[in-house]
Prior knowledge:
The chain has helices at residues 2-6, 9-29, 35-39, 78-83; strands at 42-54, 64-65, 69-76, 90-94, 104-107, 109-111, 117-122, 125-129. The chain folds into 2 domains: 1-31; 35-129, RNA Polymerase Alpha Subunit, Chain A, domain 2 (Beta Complex). Helices cover 27% and strands 34% of the residues. By secondary structure, the protein is of the alpha+beta class.
Amino acid sequence: MRDWVTKDFWWKLFSVILAVIIWLTVHKIYEVPTGGAALAGNTLTYGNLPVLLVSSVADVSDYRLAQTTVAVTVSGPNEAMGVLQANQIHALVDLSDIQTNRDLKRTVEISVPPRVILVSVNPQKIGVIVPPLEK
Length: 135
């Protein structure tokens, strides 16, 4: 039994140390980042971002938005936020599945570049003005 532990002891010790190093490396790679790390970077607010109206190709109605701009607050690491420009953030309202109802409010969808996190949108919903039906 003693021979089982002492035979090639240094190779066994080297193998255990190597296994620990590999495990720590893989664990660090697959570690899920928490939201707090990204929020610890810069936070910027862009006001008066234009809202695009998206509708299906077949829909030729003259829908309009009650408000055409939104304020967006984003956060991210210093490297990403240092080069971020307002034209890289897109706000849109999707009307592709809209019904012909009155007094609609639709959610504003925001797309941001990689490594940038959306913090808030003001307002979150925008009213859609439906054109009058022709008789």
